[in-house]
Amino acid sequence: MVEEIGTTDKGELIINVGPQHPATHGVLHLVITLDGETVRKVEPHLGYIHRSIEKMSESLSYRQFIYATSRMDYLSAHINNHACAMAVEKGLQLEVPERAQVIRVLMGELTRIASHVLWWGAMAMDIGAFTPFFHAFREREMINDIMEESCGARLTMNYMVPGGVMYDIHPNFHRRVKEFIAQFKRKLPEYDELVTGNTIFRARTRGVGVLSKEDAISYGCSGPTGRASGVDCDIRKVQPYGIYDRLDFRQIIGKEGDTYSRYLVRMQEMRQSLHIIEQLIDNIPEGDFQAKTKAVLKVPKGEYYSRVETARGDFGVYLVSEGGLTPYRIKYRSPGFSNLSALDHTVRGQKIGDLVAIMGSFDLVIPDIDR
Amino acid sequence: MFLTRYFSEIAEAVGSLLKGMRMTGYYFTHHKEIITQQYPDNRATLVLPERFRGEVVMTHTDNNEHRCTGCTACELACPNGTIKVVTKFEVNAEGKKKKAVDKFVYHLELCTMCNLCIEACPTDAIRMAQTFEHSVYDRSQLTRILNKPDSKLQEGVE
User: Fold this and answer.
1) Do A153 and B49 count as a contact with CB atoms less than 8 A apart?
2) Do A60 and B51 touch (CB under 8 A)?
3) What are the tens digits of pLDDT across the range B22-73?
4) Predicted complex ipTM
5) What residue of A is the nearest CA neighbor of B26?
6) Could you list the residue range(s) of the whole structural domain that residue A210 is in?
7) Model's pTM, two decimal places?
8) Is there a single domain that holds both residue A199 and residue A343?
């Protein structure tokens, strides 16, 4: 623990970034030790948005606890809910209808695009470009409208229930998604033109904040952050769930592990997600959208683990049941926490001005770190 | 060698600046691309999807009848303790005592719009309304009683 203000014995300056700072995208508190302009150490202080979701879940029934996970990583709410629903389904040995599986994956990939699009805008804004943020929100708004129409909410959907999805997709869903695909394909080159090819952006991201493959593995980095360093950690490929084993898509793996590489991985992932949506949108099978379940769910005694690939990485739900109405213990493995732990290592020796760019490329969602 | 790189970098920077400015020009001249909604001014024409979850309401017929039997399934389904169903015993025409809803208390300030109560309701008595402008000056105004005064249970709902 360092002093929170002042200088160290070596004459290094200690400054605080956050908890209320626009570049931390939430209430993240970083205590930074500076030697001139060079960052010597970054110490994240957590706990500002702790809501004890894990403990809270112990007093909620198996239907109820899922809604709280939408509020952890709120940008991949669907995918979090999917993991929880899968853990309960594993316990109950429920067969999820094919239609529900397809809808789940479709919604999950739409969420992933919405999350990456928002990240793209926020990342560019962190570096100093303001306009991309508005471009990003234009496409994100289309996805949010689709969500609103089918799930009833824009961000915290709570659409996944044990056994399937809450209601069937809206009649307009097909048309809306088609519209979105056309629009997004038209606008993606614009994204590249505005930011990817920009000289200032490249100068500020290339070779900045390099995270080696070994370090990425030892810090437990997952998702685009890990894959940019060359770790093949896409759960959709490594340990396929749902219908991902039957889909055609590529796992994007970067080489350099720098900020630019993390940027490129996410840009490519958006195209892959779009490819998945294109495969599925015309092939939604007929049938039930929800398996028949009892009104009161009782998961048999045992331990169940399910993991999914959220927009930020490997999200795991570890469920312990004693056979009662509520879970005995729930542990969430959130990708944001592990990715943040690599921040200190990545930023050391870099300039203070690059800290925000590196942090932006990690795509941190603070409620996901704190829970 | 150094000079060529120096100048090519400048040329590249000017090029990417012009690229960005071209897009600015495009959006400046193409008014169809404007997507901003003039929100408070467009309230009259604002259409929200029918599934949008704004708040829980109880449906009443024209005869001031609702479908709530007071079974408290919604209260049990709620993860936040948003709903409190206060029941009473009514004596019906045959002289039998029957449970009925006295007050359906709904705490909007606690509600997360998860839709679990609507799913749990066996008689479709409650539904989600599309209203979303919930700001009030005092928190106590958000606690509502959903069944209207003197409303009765609809005939045939068990």
Assistant:
1) no
2) no
3) 888 888 888 887 888 888 888 888 888 888 888 888 888 888 888 888 888 8
4) 0.82
5) A190
6) 50-370
7) 0.88
8) yes
